[in-house]
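User
Take a look at the entry that follows and flag anything odd:
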Amino acid sequence: MNELQAGQSVQVGNGAEDSAGPQIARPETVVTRGEAQYTVPRTPPENGQNGQRQKSSFAGAETIVFMLLAGVVLGLLAGYGLDRLLGTSPVLMLVGLFAGFAVGLYAVFIETK
């Protein structure tokens, strides 16, 4: 029979379905000490699902504020530039303000989806 080494990963479960439903194979680690072998379940990653880092609530709030401000500022700048170019006073700047706010809200919606 093959000898299992410390830290080797094995799959448990035969995949057969019973009355409780399908068996789910869980990755486990086999640890050998002397003659004894112990099966230890792997711990899930601390950073979240599949090892991806989770954003802290502060980082999420910071991203939302940045997106809203960036949309508003870019809309104002575009409106101001078009107002100076076309000679219309505050009309396009106000349109740019509302359009920038809408784009910022859409960006927040996409980010938090």
